[in-house]
Protein: Peptide methionine sulfoxide reductase MsrB
Amino acid sequence: MADTKTLKVEKTDAEWRALLTPEQYRITRQHGTERAFSSPDFDLGKKGTYHCVCCGKTLYGSDTKFNSGTGWPSFTQPISTDAVDEHRDTAYGMTRTEIRCADCDAHLGHVFPDGPAPTGLRYCMNGVALTFEPAET
Structure:
């Protein structure tokens, strides 16, 4: 995994609201979830990196993206061990592992132990919480 430096990004609620669309704000700052199959179309065939929509931190590489059939962008692992943070989430009567951006604490999605090899994990992300940067050709 790539080594990325973690920088803490802090903004006021008003600054986040001015920076993000209402849907991006609802998902990333209020821990929302987009409807399945409604996220931006991230083509599996495109090479590049996925970044946090709030602060731009590099989170996932296209080489770890897979079609989980769930309706959300899914990855087998983050681009580095310090790209994301895990938090216990007990909302809605379930116990899950929430994934947040390590730099700005944006809610990205959840990780589940039902992914493919090599990790067996499925990082199920809200597409609205991500931006895509194509690889240079």
About this structure: The domain at 13-35+48-134 is CATH 2.170.150.20 (Metal Binding Protein, Guanine Nucleotide Exchange Factor; Chain A). The chain has two helices and nine strands. The first helix runs from residue 13 to 19.
